[in-house]
């Protein structure tokens, strides 16, 4: 019986009509789409006689959003989907192909996820300064475990045990090569390296691997056709990463030294993308995301713990200012660099990692991009088509025939007012309509 029901779901035809369609690039003329099973089978054209009709009532239909920088969990993936974030790209964590098979079996009310696996860093290097000491499971993780079903709890514990049974040490070129091989064997979708000496994180003097070791890791990853993304937070480390040949910067440099124009030119010429995580930069300089937390469209979908996190901040670099970040991201944008929406949100609500929450912060990031000078359409492109293209996710980020049916129906017009993205009527993930 179950197989029959699955087949019936695959054959289900739905037409979403009377909508304004942003296809990932622009508003297009057709006013309806047709979904069959997991895919979009037509944009405009004839509506099949046996289609279930959903009248969009002149709302806006956009592709599912992509968060190009997270650290996630089953709960995080659930929260993401509530906000129309249908794909999360993990930049250090457990959700490689192997991890997904362990944790996400029979779990379908979540965003899709890809992962770098365990990032390459020096012993005692970033992100150790953010984590509690000792081998015990942290209290904030135990609190999250209490909220999960038995099946989800066992999956999370299994993944945690696997991730912590042997923390890989990289101190030599040979260990860097081995680390890349291990991540690839686990099914990592891309590779992450850390270049963080700690000043911006309030922990100056963190150990960082040598250029030789990091360059070896980049070269080895490229042998497997894996993208390499670098954690960087300053202009200096950003230039270092570009010199190493990385494919993307996972953050935007928070400072703005005299040589910024040369750095921008170097990034543009390299072809690397940048995921600025403006929401993180804002938190680092001490700004809580209280306006977002108080928005009823956000408040109603998150637990009190996550609302508390949004109402706090990292506050590790209060001497910084957002004007520098806004100027930096606009310089990169004008230079033709692909700017991707990302948040760097933590897997669970952690008191010292404030200002960020799964799903909600993607909308905040788009708002900050617009505040910096992006048009609303450019901000939407940075959360849909651009991350899909940069990460080779060719089946999503677009509303086009044959694409995966990841969709959000929005009251209002986010191409004119970016804040409207939070006014969600319905979310579809892989063709399945979700509770929003």
What would you note in describing this structure?
This protein has 436 residues and is α/β, with parallel strands linked by helices. The protein has one domain (64-395): Metal-dependent hydrolases (TIM Barrel, Alpha-Beta Barrel). It contains 17 helices and 17 strands. The chain has a six-stranded mixed beta sheet, with no helix packed on it. Strands 5-4-1-6 form a four-stranded mixed beta sheet, with no helix packed on it. Strands 11-12-13-14 form a four-stranded parallel beta sheet. Helix 14 crosses helix 15 (360-372). The chain starts with a helix and ends with a strand. The relative contact order is 0.17.
